[in-house]
Design a protein that fits this description.
197 residues; mainly alpha; elongated
Amino acid sequence: MTEGVATTRRSRITPEREAELYEAVLDLLREVGYDALTMDAVAARTRSSKATLYRQWGGKAELVAKAVRHHKPGRAAAVDTGSLKGDLHALILRADDCEMQQNSELMRGLAMTVHGNPDLLKAFREHLIEPEMADYRRVLQRAVERGEVRVDNPALGFVRHMMIGAFAARMMLDEEPPTRDFLLSYIDAVVLPALGV
């Protein structure tokens, strides 16, 4: 099969249909978890053929990673309010508290699975982690270019750890889901002071 034919076949699913498939995948993930999720179940839930799913996504790991990525708000690098505080706040405000709770539960369920499944970890790194980290680096680079943060500030390399840590630790330590108010307060009290803003 030529590359042109493969590209044509892969592009037959409309954006609306793709979004519907991703939503079904996320629903199944919440219901049964990653290990019990099967391509057969996705095909049945979405009234698709399993062959179509494999042709479009290659396998379960890529389908799940792309479904999670699709569910997240737009690219972080597109947020540019003119200040680092404004940018970080805007990134948090893209999701409401209900969405944050759903995302937190979903990611908590996937966290252990990712580390025990090399295919899923590779797909998450490629489709979710690396693009998101590149976006955050761009947001921070703009802050450096504006003179808000010194280029040699050692905290620059740890912002992603701080943000992910706050999101993940909220439930584990406080037994409460992350909320907008909590994360905005965390940014103001921890992240920005660490960056000298």
